[in-house]
């Protein structure tokens, strides 16, 4: 059987230093799938959790980590077209398997790569931009003239979401980050109304001040338990809170006051993307193609790439992601 290089984890789970380049069987595309020779892949926080054995991987996912990639179609499964052919340059979203030389993926989750996007930029789009648009529009019901707060404001999903909210007529965009450098970046480069340093400021009190006590219409949160009270406090009447992560833990601190949930009619909803079925993901992919791709072409939307690593420096790439110092995507390229 033909083999390929792929990133594996020694012992099945562990720290970044357990990642290594392995040889595994090269996948074969089934009906409705394409075999893509990968040029670049993006790193995501879920990759760290999966590496540590703390992420519930969908049953259809291969063991290999990684959900977003760019590359060239090598072959298609029987009776597969979907507007694609061998040789097409594509990028896309997968249930797993992107940390490898080849991947098989449904053509429903592939997008033709525009010439003006580099392989590295294209590999950093699918997971982050689809997650951001899902949180903003599908779950968060964001409308023009509303305000939005992005926690982990310099994360790739938030950078995408900030640009989407701005393009769709946000009244105000707020963010929380962990350094003055990130505040300057968001306010000066992305036009965020106001960003707050959660390490040195009471972000909830500052947002109440900034909004004159009115609060924000939508909050997108990756932190969870430690931000729960603050999210309720800063929510506007009929506000929404979309929970996408649990970086701050799962157990609520003592003394949390849930009265605002009732008094302000707050809607709190959790959401994931990877566990969704293919048709749901395909609809989000279509939204990305119709709404975002033209804006990448005219320069309205940008993919912020923090650093590019070669395939065999995956340990260093994961360590950088874990440092929480990045502003944008970390990408690996396969030469």
UniProtKB/TrEMBL annotation:
Chain ranges of the Enoyl reductase (ER) domain: 14-332
Name of one Pfam family that matches: ADH_N
Record carries keyword Magnesium: no
Domain of life: Eukaryota
Transmembrane segments: none
MF-aspect GO terms: NADPH binding; oxidoreductase activity, acting on NAD(P)H
Keywords: NADP, Oxidoreductase
Keyword check for Cell membrane: no
UniProt protein name: Quinone oxidoreductase
Organism: Penicillium chermesinum
């Amino acid at each position: 059987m033909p083999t390929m290089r792929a990133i594996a984890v020694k012992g099945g789970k562990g720290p970044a230093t357990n990642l290594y380049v392995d040889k595994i069987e090269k996948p074969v595309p089934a009906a409705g799938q394409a075999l893509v020779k990968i040029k670049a892949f993006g790193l995501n926080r879920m990759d760290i959790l999966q590496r540590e054995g703390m992420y519930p991987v969908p049953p259809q996912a291969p063991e290999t980590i990684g959900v977003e990639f760019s590359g060239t179609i090598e072959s298609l499964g029987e009776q597969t077209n979907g507007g694609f052919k061998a040789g097409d340059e594509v990028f896309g979203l997968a249930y797993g398997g992107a940390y490898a030389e080849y991947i098989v993926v449904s053509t429903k989750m592939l997008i033709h790569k525009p010439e003006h996007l580099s392989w590295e930029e294209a590999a950093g789009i699918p997971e982050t931009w689809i997650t951001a648009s899902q949180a903003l529009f599908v779950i968060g019901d964001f409308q023009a003239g509303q305000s939005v707060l992005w926690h982990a404001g310099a994360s790739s999903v938030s950078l995408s979401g900030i640009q989407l909210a701005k393009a769709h007529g946000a009244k105000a965009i707020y963010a929380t980050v962990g350094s003055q450098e990130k505040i300057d970046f968001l306010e000066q480069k992305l036009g965020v109304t106001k960003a707050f340093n959660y390490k040195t400021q009471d972000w909830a009190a500052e947002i109440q001040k900034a909004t004159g006590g009115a609060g924000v219409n939508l909050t997108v949160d990756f932190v969870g338990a430690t931000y729960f009270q603050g999210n309720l406090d800063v929510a506007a009447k009929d506000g929404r809170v979309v929970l996408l992560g649990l970086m701050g833990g799962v157990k609520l601190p003592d003394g949390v006051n849930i009265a605002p949930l009732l008094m302000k009619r707050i809607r709190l909803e959790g959401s994931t993307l990877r566990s969704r079925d293919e048709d749901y993901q395909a609809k989000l992919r279509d939204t990305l193609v119709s709404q975002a791709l033209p804006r990448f072409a005219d320069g309205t939307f940008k993919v912020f790439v923090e650093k590019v690593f070669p395939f065999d420096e995956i340990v260093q790439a994961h360590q950088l992601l874990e440092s929480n110092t990045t502003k944008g995507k970390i990408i690996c390229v396969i030469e």
